[in-house]
Amino acid sequence: MSMIDIKDPKNVNTAAVVGLGLVGGWLTARETGIRPLGGAVLAAAGGWAVRSWLAKTDPLTTAGLTALYVGGFGASHPLAKKIGSWPAVLTVTTVAAGAAGVLADR
Fold first, then answer.
1. What does the pLDDT read at residue 4?
2. Widest pairwise Cα distance in the chain
3. Which of 2, 11, 80, 82 could be joined to 88 by an S-S link, Cβ 3.0–4.6 Å?
4. Mean pLDDT throughout 64-92?
């Protein structure tokens, strides 16, 4: 038995991980004022989600979900100028987490 018991990737709720990465990364950057720290949260959650998507789905689905996650992060910036920061982050998170839930978690 190892010192750290890591959850099997097929049992990870990736929709929750995506939500944590996008909302948590944004909040971390906003509240600390250290944007790279928010990026580290975003990247860590993204890596954890990709690990699970690879175990649960095929490479094409994994690539699509990864593109949606990264694209959501990128899209939230111009969207924030139109609808505000919180609505933009919540919108892209809902889309990305919803896709993860439907395509990988169900």
1. 86
2. 51
3. 80
4. 97
* Domain residue extents for the chain: 13-105
Say how far apart CA 80 and CA 89 lie, in whole Å.
8
- Look up residue 75 and give its amino acid: A
Q: What is the DSSP letter of 57?
A: S
Helix axes 14-32, 85-100, angle to 10 degrees: 160
What pLDDT, on a 0 to 100 scale, did the predictor assign at position 29?
96
The reported pLDDT for the residue numbered 37 is: 98
Give dist(CA 80, CA 75) in Å, integer. Answer: 9
- Tokens, residue 14: 């990736």
The pLDDT tens digits of the residues spanning 26-56 come to: 999 999 999 999 999 999 999 999 999 999 9
Q: How big is the CA angle at 14 (ends 8 and 15), to the nearest 5 degrees? A: 155
Averaged confidence pLDDT in the chain: 96
